[in-house]
Amino acid sequence: MKKAFAMLLSLALLLGAAGAMAESTTITMGTNAGFAPFEYIGDDGEITGFDVELAYLMAQEMGMELVIEDMYFDGLLAALDQGTVDFVMAAMTINDERKEAALFSTPYFNASQAVVVLEDYEGIQTVEDIADKKVATQDGTTGYFMALDTFGCDASNVAAFKASTDCVLELTSGRADCIIIDDSVAQNFLQNFDGLKIVEGLEMPLEEYGIAVKLGNEELLEKINAALQTLVDNGTYDEIYAKYFLAAEETEGAEETAETEEAAG
Ligand code: GLN
Q1: Is residue 113 lining ligand 1, measured as CB closer than 6 Å?
Q2: What value, to the nearest 5°, has the Cα angle with vertex 29 and ends 23 and 32?
Q3: How would you write the pLDDT of the chain (265 residues) with one tens digit per residue?
Q4: CATH 3.40.190.10: does it fit domain 26-110+208-259?
Q5: Is 92 a pocket residue for ligand 1 (Cβ < 6 Å)?
Q6: pTM above 0.70, yes or no
C-alpha cells in the first residue's frame, strides 16, 4: 500500500515537472488570422498561412513550442506590451511609429499597398484619383493611414474594418469605391471573390514586414533573427514562399499546358 502511494506520488511529481517544462518552453505569437495568405483559418479549423508556417519552424529552431493568440490587428502591439504575447507576426509593416512601440526583426517580406475595385470600374487611374473616393480599409493598418495621410481622403470617406474580408463586402455592395490593402492579400481576394480587379500602374512605396517583440527584449529578438536566418539559409523559407506565392502561378501554368495539349489532341 505504501509502495503504491510512493509510486503514485513520484508519478505525480514527474508529471508536474513535465508540465512545468512544457510551460517554460512555449512561446506565444500574437496574430490576426484573417489576412490570407499570411495568417488565416484553414479548412481544418487550424490557423495557418505563410507567417504561421514560418513561425512554427522558427519556434522549433528556438527549441520552443508555438502557441497562437488570434486577435484584432489594431490590438497586437498593445498585447505585446502587456506581455499577453511574446512576439507578433501578422504581415506587420515596419515603420517609424511602430518602432517606438516595439522592436522589429530583420525584414522577412516585401509588400506594398494595392487598390482593389470592381472589374468594370475605371474611376481610379492614378493615386491622385483616390482623394475623393470612398475607401474600405482594415483598422490600424498602413492602408488605412495611407488613405488619410498620403492620398488625402476625408476621414468620413474612409471605413476601417476589424476584419479584412469585410472590405470586400463594402466594395461589392457599392458602399465603397475601392479597397486599399496589402498586395498579396489583394491578390488573394481576386482568387476568392468574383468581379474584382487590382488597379494597375499605381506607384506605391515599398513596405517591409517584420516580427515584433517587446521593447527591451533584445534577447528574444536575437533568437528570432537567428532562427529566421537559419530558415533562409537552409532553403526552408524559399519552400514556404513557393508554396504560398508561386503555387497559383504554377497551377495556372499547368492548366494552360493541359488546355494546349487538349487543343492539340
Ligand atoms: N501590412 C499592413 C500593416 O502593417 C497590414 C497588416 C495586416 O492587416 N495584418 O499595417
Answers
A1: no
A2: 145
A3: 556 655 555 655 555 555 444 445 999 999 999 999 999 999 999 999 999 999 999 999 999 999 999 999 999 999 999 999 999 999 999 999 999 999 999 999 999 999 999 999 999 999 999 999 999 999 999 999 999 999 999 999 999 999 999 999 999 999 999 999 999 999 999 999 999 999 999 999 999 999 999 999 999 999 999 999 999 999 999 999 999 999 755 554 444 444 444 444 3
A4: yes
A5: yes
A6: yes
Neighbours of 16 (CB within 10 A): 10
Question: Which residue matches cell numbers 504554377?
Answer: 250
Element (H, E) at 178: strand 178-182
Residue 140, Ramachandran bin (φ over 0: left; ψ between -120 and 50: alpha; else beta): left
Q: What angle do CA 255, 245, 228 make, to 5 degrees?
A: 150
**DSSP type of residue 127:** G
Ligand 1 in reach of 31 Cβ (< 6 A): no
Give distance in angstroms: CA of 265 to centre of ligand 1.
47
Would you identify the CATH topology of the domain 113-205?
Answer: D-Maltodextrin-Binding Protein; domain 2 (3.40.190)
Are residues 88 and 215 in contact, defined by beta-carbon separation less than 8 angstroms?
A: no
Distance 181 CA to ligand 1 centre (A): 8
- In this structure, are residues 49 and 244 in contact, taking their beta carbons and an 8 Å threshold? yes
Residue intervals of the chain classified under CATH 3.40.190.10 are 26-110+208-259, 113-205
